[in-house]
Amino acid sequence: MSDPKSSPRRSATPLPALQAALTDAATDPVRRALWLDALEQKLRPCLPPPLADHCRLANVAEGGRLVFIVDSPIWRARLRLAAPDILDVARSIGLAATEVAIKTAIAPFAPAATAAGATRPLSETARSSLAAALATLEESVSRNPAGASGDRRGGRKR
Fold it and tell me: Is the pTM here over 0.70, yes or no?
């Protein structure tokens, strides 16, 4: 017989996903990511408005180095100019920040927004080809009112 003390019973009710992820032994990366996200949310309002959209806090390295990622070299230069203010804000919220490191990402953070309804106008050739195809379809339907759902079944003839 097994000893009831050797294996703890699980709760009958399931845990929410985040709580289940945080109860595992390997939760340090998850907790750190949540902490970094919360820290970024505190620092972001203190950044100049155009800069806030183009940079993200990536890490707080040993020695109090704040590592930011920007999406182009111009934003790297602007963040470097704002570094003293960022350090002051980080110190005011309890971090022992000593320097700001900035990395430039290869790809932008958000994909370029495309308008959902934006379409290119049809050329005259494309328009006439589509009209001819539609006319052919209408003609075939008028000859065979049952259409494709009638006696055609696909496959090979026997």
Answer: no
